Amino acid sequence: MSDTGRRGRKFCLVDVVICSRPEGRAQGGGVLVARVVSPVSSRESWTVLGDDDRPVETMERYLADLTGIERSPNAIKAYAHDLKDWSIPR
Fold first, then answer.
1. Whole-number mean pLDDT of the chain?
2. Could you list the residue range(s) of the whole structural domain that residue 30 is in?
């Protein structure tokens, strides 16, 4: 499988979910929000990736629960961004 997709986006395999992530990050690394799509159901969701490009486990469980009860992908994206902002040290 190629590591580049359409429009230059990169893809990585996370358990049974494929996620796309931006090419770069803001200076200093940190966490980012990434779109995820189930290869089985094509259901869209969002997750928070840590410095190591892996989902942040506690946030992932919460967002997966929201996906499981069929909340809107836009609502899940908003929650993911709020969780990301909350996790950034001030």
1. 76
2. 6-87
